[in-house]
């Protein structure tokens, strides 16, 4: 038995070591070389492996990008009201969620709506943008449902553009929480209620 084991070691070890050699004169052996050295095709080049001869493929029907969350609403008032009735914020008022909402609001919203959500952001006050953005901390925004605000962030509303491609669904909901906090602060100090924007 020991003799067979020695012979196997003397045969297998050199074969393994030699097969790992990768110089030009001794390329070694590959198990399934067609998979190891697969042929690569450039994105917009011809490809003989497909009937249409193209390398770039259309995604399979019904597939969506990773982490994509479908949004079944359209950019109209009726759909916005429907979103308000159907969409419920999955996040609660915690310090962590409010801090994340404030961070996202500061990044994506304060330029137009201002730090307090009163529509006095730097784009308007500097004169770069002629229309005063809507107030979020008072006025009509107090009557909006969470889903309506989420819908507006996602698809845009009035002169505000869509932000769904820049702001993740999680961030949008946390922005809604932060807007609610701004509204609470305004209710606590009625003198701070800003005039409604356009």
Topology:
Layout: H1 2-19, H2 33-36, H3 77-86, H4 95-108, H5 110-113, H6 122-125, H7 146-155, H8 169-188
List keywords for this structure.
single chain; 198 residues; mainly alpha; Cytochrome Bc1 Complex, Chain D, domain 2
Summarize the structure in short.
This protein is mainly alpha-helical.
CATH homologous superfamily assignment of the domain at 77-192:
Cytochrome c-like domain
CATH class of the domain at 77-192: Mainly Alpha
**Which structural class do you get from the secondary structure elements?**
mainly alpha
- The radius of gyration is 30 Å
Report the principal-axis shape.
Answer: elongated
| End-to-end distance | 92 Å
Strand elements, count: 0
| Percentage of residues in helical conformation | 40-55%
Strand content: under 5%
Helix count, per DSSP? Answer: 8
Mean pLDDT: 84
CATH architecture of the domain at 77-192: Orthogonal Bundle
Helix/strand order, N-terminal first: HHHHHHHH
What ranges have pLDDT less than 50 throughout 5 or more consecutive residues? Answer: 193-198
Biggest sheet overview: none
CATH fold title of the domain at 77-192: Cytochrome Bc1 Complex, Chain D, domain 2
